[in-house]
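S1.2 Input.
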Amino acid sequence: MPLSFNIDPILEGRQRLTDAQALELHRTASLHDLGEWARVVSDRLHPEDHRTYVIDRNINYTNVCTAKCTFCGFRRDHDNSDSYVLSFDTIGKKIEELISIGGTQILMQGGMNDRLPIEWYEDLLRFISTNYPTIHIHAFSPPEFVEFERFFQMDVRDILRRFKAVGLKTVPGGGGEIFAPRVRKRIGSTKCSGDDWLRIMRVCHEEGMNTSCTMMIGHIETVQERIDHMSSLRDMQDYAAWVGGQRSTVGSEAIDLERIQKLHAGVFEKSILPADHRPPTADHSTGRYEAFIHWPFQRENVPLGRAKEFDPEIHGDFDTLENEDVARGRVVRSAGAEEYLRTLAIARLFFDNIPSLQSSWVTMGPKIGQLALCFGANDMGGAMMEENVVSAAGTTYRLAVRELCRLIREAGWIPAQRDQYYNIIKRWDGPDSPDFQPDPDAHIRSVETLADKTWIGAAPGLDDVVVTDKTTLDPESARKLALTVLGDDR
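S1.3 Output.
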């Protein structure tokens, strides 16, 4: 079906995609066309011959949490036998393991633990920044900061300034989910509101800190609610640009500050920007959303996963919310690979002011994660040593640096390791690239000719033959599978 608008000015960066046009693309454009268009925009924004990844580690310092989100399988109460708060020594050992493989940053988040005072967090940040000065601290999501405000009886601006003074560098975008009140009331009623999430990030940007932003799809949200979520992020990115002195967006369109503040009044009610505020000067520009990441809801081990799966024969049109079960969040519309890629491509067309989009291979797997590079993503995210929150909810994947490099190269780019600000640390354009090295943990299959038969290691699904040294096989370590030699008529 032909579009009702001309896509070319959007692809060329001369015009902004509207909310209505984004909805039309989702409803009518083919996945192939969306991928082609997103690739054009991604190549325009990132014409370099490489695509990036970062070596980091997720450190979840506590699993005690005051929130009770229906999509979370990680949280615990204080009196649960498996609740924990990591010691500084344990966190230090995790960082040392990260450094040993060339890691450069930690993503540190936890539950909202009401028994940890602000001094505990300051001591933790000071411990890390003093003992591991090369490690970038990317920590504490907006829902944590909202609870910090309640726990410490302080405004987020004061908390951020104290945390920055002892080592906090950037803030991750966890807890965004979907901003729509209808959705948040159902999936995270005890968590911060969408307005509060955006307010925390507004203050981060005003204070000169870069952040990321996120969205979780494939649960009870409508497509319109996804687009509203992305529109709020784009508006607040415009606001961050305005604070930094920029006055126009795509196509020299003026940033309408009055419209943004009126439309998102709840975001500006608290933590008021001081009248004498001046954009901070530092190595990096005034804070902004550096990257957008979205992923599908994992339903395996969480309360929301027990909701009924959407069936159009029973529930009708999900997006109209005419069915009571759908409107009340009793029905989940899961998102698979096609829906993930469709949303990614639209996000690349929509976010003309957010520079990077990350592939979510952790939830989608390596092949879809690789394909995401052709649907608008320019970054593969982290080669994470550890991940606990998403994996507690359902299926996740793990990839080493070697595999990330291979996926990037096979997709047509040179793999490059980056830092949190997307500065390149190492381009792997030579024979020393990790994906060109032998796999140290490879399963070795050897062939031995036995008179009139040949056995080849082991059959798929059976134990492999183990090579005990460079020349000798240990035949007792595997079951031999006798196969007739191909072409032999005996």
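S1.4 Remarks. The first helix runs from residue 8 to 11.
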